[in-house]
Structures are given as structure tokens and as C-alpha cells.
Structure to design on (257 residues):
């Protein structure tokens, strides 16, 4: 049965989509079959994996809202072991439409159930908000990874996300656990970046992954080429960082499934 991971942070620009793509690619590199689910109306995951989602008749919007479209109906294979459930701007309307839906927080979880035996990992990209799309992802997941930009304002916003995860665990998904906080966009040349990383580690200790993703232009170039960085620049330190993250994630899951 697939282990479902949500990658979440209500702050934009912290590396959520980059983490979904490259963690998924790193796990696939290890032989695992991966489904990436795009729950962000910006559709960055879909576009970065080479899917022109604005031309599609059925996406995650229909899966969540029309009551007829099955998630497996929208899945597209993009690599030998990587599959994507795409999204486009239509998904922005789902936030409003789900408000009146019965069991609205569980729609994604229930849509994923039939697919769990078919994959080893399901990795969910989320929008930069704590609305119903992100809540659906957290309710559907067993584990959550929190990418955290090594900047003060991103660090401050973390408290709100942790409170939300705590509430979801208490009321909607008792099996949810934080797999780890992933420091991203780290620049060792900047005192501020080093100080924020040090503070993150001092406050959250073992909850912070050892892996640190450094800032690099390669992360901007890879989506233009419609590739994960592991494919675009396989020897780059960014690719190695996500291979390291995949190892850490597997170790955390195996220590407490």
C-alpha cells in the first residue's frame, strides 16, 4: 500500500513543488513507483513535469468536485515509474465549491483509496494557503514534509502551520505525523541564512532533516526543461540533496511506519 506524503507550507516560494518533484524523482530512482498529485491551482508540478494541463478536459478539479471523475481517470504517466495527477487554474474554484460539500475534508483521501495498492509512494503538492485544498492533502496523508526557506519571515509563519497540523491530527487524521522540516534556499554566504538555520535546528532539533537544500539557479532551469533536477543535472549538489532527503524519509518511515 502506498505511503502518502503531503508537502505543505502556507508560505509561497519555499520550495514545495520543487520538493515534490525531486523527492518523487529520487524515490523513483530507487525503484519505487510514484504518484505525484497536484493540488495547487497554479499547476506548477504539472507544467514542470511536461504536462500542458490547461488543455486537459479532466484534472484534479473534476476529481474533487463533480462526484463522477475518478482520480485514476486523470493520472498521466510522465516517466517509467512516475505518474502525475495534474491540476490547472480550474482548481482555484474548488476551494469555494467544497465549502458546501458533505465530508469535504475527506474527498481527496477517499479518491486516493483505490490507487493505494498501485503505488509505493503518493506525494501531494499543496497551494500556499491553509484552505480546504491543503486540508484535504493533510487528511489524506500519513506524513507531512515542511519545506522551510532559511529566512526569518518564513520561519515565523511555521507556527501557524504546526498548529493547523496539530488540529488536523486531533480531529481529522490521527495517523498524520510530521516526517520532518526541510531547510530550503540556504545560502551559506549569508549570515542571516546561517542564523535562521541554526535557530530552526535549536528549536526543532531532530524534527529537522539533516539534508539542507541550497539555493541554486539549477532549480529554476530544470522546470523550463520539464525535468526534475535529478534528470536535468544529475551530479549537481541539488540533485544529491534530494537523494539524501529520500534516504532520510525512508529511514523515518521505516523507524515508525
Amino acid at each position: 500500500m502506498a505511503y502518502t506524503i503531503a508537502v505543505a507550507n502556507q508560505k509561497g516560494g519555499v520550495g514545495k513543488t520543487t520538493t515534490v518533484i525531486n523527492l518523487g524523482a529520487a524515490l523513483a530512482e530507487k525503484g519505487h513507483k510514484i504518484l505525484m498529485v497536484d493540488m495547487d491551482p497554479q499547476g506548477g508540478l504539472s507544467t514542470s513535469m511536461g504536462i500542458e494541463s490547461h488543455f486537459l478536459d479532466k484534472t484534479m478539479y473534476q476529481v474533487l468536485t463533480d462526484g463522477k471523475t475518478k482520480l485514476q481517470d486523470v493520472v498521466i504517466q510522465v516517466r517509467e515509474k512516475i505518474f502525475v495527477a495534474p491540476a490547472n487554474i480550474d482548481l482555484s474554484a474548488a476551494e469555494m465549491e467544497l465549502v458546501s460539500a458533505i465530508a469535504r475534508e475527506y474527498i481527496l483521501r477517499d479518491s486516493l483509496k483505490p490507487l493505494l495498492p498501485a503505488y509505493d509512494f503518493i506525494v501531494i503538492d499543496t497551494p500556499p494557503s491553509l484552505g480546504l485544498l491543503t486540508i484535504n492533502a493533510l487528511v489524506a496523508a500519513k506524513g507531512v514534509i515542511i519545506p522551510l526557506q532559511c529566512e526569518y519571515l518564513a520561519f515565523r509563519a511555521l507556527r501557524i502551520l504546526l498548529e493547523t497540523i496539530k488540529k488536523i491530527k486531533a480531529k481529522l487524521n490521527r495517523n498524520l505525523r510530521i516526517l520532518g522540516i526541510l531547510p530550503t534556499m540556504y545560502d551559506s554566504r549569508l549570515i542571516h541564512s546561517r542564523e535562521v538555520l541554526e535557530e530552526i535546528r535549536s528549536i526543532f532539533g531532530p524534527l529537522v532533516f539533516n539534508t539542507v537544500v541550497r539555493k541554486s539557479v539549477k532549480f529554476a532551469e530544470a522546470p523550463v526543461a520539464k525535468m526534475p533536477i535529478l534528470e536535468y543535472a544529475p551530479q549537481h549538489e541539488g540533485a544529491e540533496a534530494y537523494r539524501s532527503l529520500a534516504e532520510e524519509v525512508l529511514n523515518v518511515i521505516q523507524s515508525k511506519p
About this structure: The longest helix spans residues 152-171. Residues 3-255 form a domain with the Rossmann fold fold (CATH 3.40.50.300). The radius of gyration is 17 Å. The beta strands are 3-7, 34-38, 76-77, 82-85, 121-125, 143-149, 177-184.
